[in-house]
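Run log // design_07
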C-alpha cells in the first residue's frame, strides 16, 4: 500500500466517530502492522523472482530448447519417410493392378474365342481350307491377346495335379479316384488367372475323392513285439 493510501486510511480513521482515543490508536497500530506485513511479503516475492532468474543457466536452457527442436525434426523426418514409403507402395499397386478390371473383361473374350474353336467339328478344318484359315486367325488373335495380358502381369494358373487350394481354385465336382491323394485337382474346366499376387479369376476344377490322405498312416512302433 502506498503512502497516499496510508494517509487516506489514517484520515478515514480520524474522521470516524471513534470517541475512545485508545480504540483509535489500536486501529491505527493494526493498520500499520498490516501495511508492514504486506510490504515484507511483496519484498520477499520480488527477491524470489530475482533469485530464480539469476539461478537459471542460459546454456542449459539453450540445450533444452535445442533438444526439443531436434526431436521435432526427427519426428518430421520419420513421418516424411513413412509417407514416401506409403506413396511408393500405392504407386506400385496402382501400376500392377490398374488393368485388373480390363484384364478380367478380356478373359471373357478369350473364353469366347476358345468356345468358337471348340465348336468346329473334328475333321472339318482339313476338309474346308477357308474354315481352317478362319480358325487359324482366331487362334492367332487369342494368342496375341494372352501375350498382351502376360506383359501386363497376368499369368495363367496350371493347377492340374496340384493340391486343391480354395484361394486359387473353385471346385465344381468330385472325381472318384483312389490312385491319387484326396483333394487333388484332376480336371480343369475353366482356366484361372492371377495378376501379381492377387487372384484375377479362380480356376474351375474337378478334384479327386476317395484316394489316400496326405498325412502318412501311423507306422507300427519298431520296439513293439509282434505276436508269434
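design_07 sequence
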Amino acid at each position: 500500500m502506498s503512502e497516499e493510501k496510508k494517509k487516506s486510511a489514517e484520515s478515514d480513521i480520524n474522521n470516524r466517530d471513534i470517541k475512545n482515543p485508545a480504540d483509535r490508536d489500536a486501529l491505527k497500530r493494526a493498520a500499520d502492522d498490516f501495511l508492514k506485513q504486506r510490504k515484507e511479503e511483496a519484498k520477499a516475492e520480488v527477491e524470489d523472482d530475482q533469485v530464480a532468474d539469476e539461478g537459471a543457466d542460459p546454456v542449459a536452457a539453450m540445450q533444452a530448447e535445442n533438444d526439443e527442436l531436434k526431436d521435432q525434426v526427427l519426428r518430421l523426418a520419420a513421418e516424411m519417410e513413412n509417407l514416401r514409403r506409403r506413396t511408393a507402395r500405392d504407386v506400385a499397386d496402382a501400376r500392377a493392378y490398374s488393368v485388373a478390371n480390363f484384364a478380367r473383361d478380356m478373359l471373357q473374350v478369350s473364353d469366347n474365342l476358345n468356345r468358337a474353336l471348340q465348336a468346329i467339328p473334328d475333321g472339318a478344318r482339313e476338309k474346308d481350307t477357308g474354315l481352317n484359315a478362319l480358325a487359324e486367325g482366331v487362334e492367332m488373335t487369342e494368342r496375341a491377346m494372352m501375350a498382351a495380358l502376360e506383359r501386363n502381369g497376368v499369368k495363367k494358373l496350371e493347377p492340374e495335379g496340384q493340391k486343391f487350394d480354395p484361394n486359387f481354385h473353385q471346385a465344381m465336382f468330385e472325381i472318384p479316384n483312389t490312385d491319387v491323394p484326396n483333394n487333388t485337382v484332376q480336371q480343369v474346366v475353366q482356366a484361372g488367372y492371377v495378376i501379381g499376387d492377387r487372384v484375377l479369376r479362380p480356376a474351375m476344377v474337378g478334384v479327386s475323392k476317395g484316394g489316400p490322405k496326405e498325412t502318412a498312416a501311423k507306422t507300427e512302433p519298431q520296439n513293439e513285439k509282434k505276436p508269434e
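Residues 216-228 have pLDDT under 50 and may be disordered.
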